[in-house]
Amino acid sequence: MPHITVDYSDALADTFDRRGFGLALHPLLARTVVGSVTGCKTRFRQIEECVIADGTDEVALLHVEVALLSGRTPEAKAELSRAVLGLARDHVKPTPGVTLHTSVDVCDLSRGSFASHTEEDHA
Hints:
Number of strands: 4
Order of helices and strands: EHEEHE
Structural class: alpha/beta
CATH superfamily: Macrophage Migration Inhibitory Factor
CATH topology: Macrophage Migration Inhibitory Factor
Number of helices: 2
Number of domains: 1
Helix content: 25-40%
Shape: globular
């Protein structure tokens, strides 16, 4: 069920192991907050342009948003944020001369308004 969105600067296109990150992230979520990798969905969006700080080209951004159904404690979400931050940092190779800004936000999806459907091909 978690919906994960990862925005990353184009400068990280060759140094960010996106698939490895997603495959490591799903079991982490299962262990810490959701119990199963079955519903985990991660999408990656490369940012064509991003202005950080003074706008120099020596800065890159990696931001992960984890959206979960509401009900987790603030402590559980903070623990998850720290774990995801560490995992993200482990999946980006250092780029000489580039400062990487990495952040994580764990947010709630409303149980009252969230809807989902999975359809398997039965052919």
